[in-house]
Amino acid sequence: MSAELPARVNPIGRALSDAGVLAWRSLKRFPRTPDMLIYATIQPIMFVLLFAYVFGNAIPIPGFPGARAYREFLMSGIFAQTMAFAVASASVGLADDMSKGLIDRFRSLPMARSGVIAGRVIGDLVFNAFVMLIMVLCGFIVGWRWHNGFGQALAAFAILLLFAFAMLWVGALIGLSVGSAEVAASAGLIWLFPLTFLSNAFVPTPNLPSGLQPVAEWNPISSIVAACRHLFGNPSPFASPDGFPAQHPVWLSLIWCTAIIVVFAPLAVRKYRSATGR
């Protein structure tokens, strides 16, 4: 009598199942460490208050006078910056797991390699969605509003979460490439500060030097910010109003997010294989 052959396991289904288990593991640590949420929200709240009340009257918005216009201009930049800084949570978390040998233990189990990284990314994405909710409340407090209806506002939040998802894959690659969580914290953020400030997040691009204007308007963070301002109905001046970034901000933001995921997700999975092989 011939032995029964084992049923074939769907690799995609297994990867999704593994990712779900590890995402739940990642989420379970947040209620046990509420200080993580506190410190994750302090920085963007400080940025909102400092820029809204300290720089709000000093940074003019072309075509939109008044401090209220700057606050509406500001919030999409704060949202995008907060989602971009999700890089740090993935990089530090994975670097810490590697230093403790946890990633090696995962690798010794019959788990999909992509599922291990995706689980961390999904868990951090849910956490960043909660942080974004707090930022929305903070925005309402300082006077920010959306003007194009709830549907378009929901589309803007979806773009922000897609951007966070893309940046988390960048963070995963960094976390798997460095030697410790301390290094990962610096490597995950040091390049983001010039990328964020050389954009339209806090200063309208018409106010920048002419040589920096095209760089700022094609910046991926600028694309996310411009798409959100367009969908929220907030002020969104451009130095080149007839250019592609000004005319098609939503499409450009989707192109940037897709490109980041397509490049960095496979690189992170590939790095996971070599970084944990000992």
Automatic annotation (TrEMBL):
<keyword id="KW-0813">Transport</keyword>
<feature type="transmembrane region" description="Helical">
    <location>
        <begin position="183"/>
        <end position="203"/>
    </location>
</feature>
<keyword id="KW-0472">Membrane</keyword>
<dbReference type="GO" id="GO:0046677">
    <property type="term" value="P:response to antibiotic"/>
</dbReference>
<keyword id="KW-1003">Cell membrane</keyword>
<dbReference type="InterPro" id="IPR013525">
    <property type="entry name" value="ABC2_TM"/>
</dbReference>
<dbReference type="InterPro" id="IPR051784">
    <property type="entry name" value="Nod_factor_ABC_transporter"/>
</dbReference>
<feature type="transmembrane region" description="Helical">
    <location>
        <begin position="250"/>
        <end position="269"/>
    </location>
</feature>
<feature type="transmembrane region" description="Helical">
    <location>
        <begin position="73"/>
        <end position="95"/>
    </location>
</feature>
<keyword id="KW-0046">Antibiotic resistance</keyword>
<protein>
    <recommendedName>
        <fullName>Transport permease protein</fullName>
    </recommendedName>
</protein>
<dbReference type="Pfam" id="PF01061">
    <property type="entry name" value="ABC2_membrane"/>
</dbReference>
<dbReference type="GO" id="GO:0140359">
    <property type="term" value="F:ABC-type transporter activity"/>
</dbReference>
<keyword id="KW-1133">Transmembrane helix</keyword>
<comment type="similarity">
    <text>Belongs to the ABC-2 integral membrane protein family.</text>
</comment>
<feature type="domain" description="ABC transmembrane type-2">
    <location>
        <begin position="35"/>
        <end position="275"/>
    </location>
</feature>
<dbReference type="GO" id="GO:0043190">
    <property type="term" value="C:ATP-binding cassette (ABC) transporter complex"/>
</dbReference>
<feature type="transmembrane region" description="Helical">
    <location>
        <begin position="116"/>
        <end position="142"/>
    </location>
</feature>
<feature type="transmembrane region" description="Helical">
    <location>
        <begin position="37"/>
        <end position="61"/>
    </location>
</feature>
<feature type="transmembrane region" description="Helical">
    <location>
        <begin position="154"/>
        <end position="176"/>
    </location>
</feature>
<dbReference type="InterPro" id="IPR000412">
    <property type="entry name" value="ABC_2_transport"/>
</dbReference>
<keyword id="KW-0812">Transmembrane</keyword>
<dbReference type="InterPro" id="IPR047817">
    <property type="entry name" value="ABC2_TM_bact-type"/>
</dbReference>
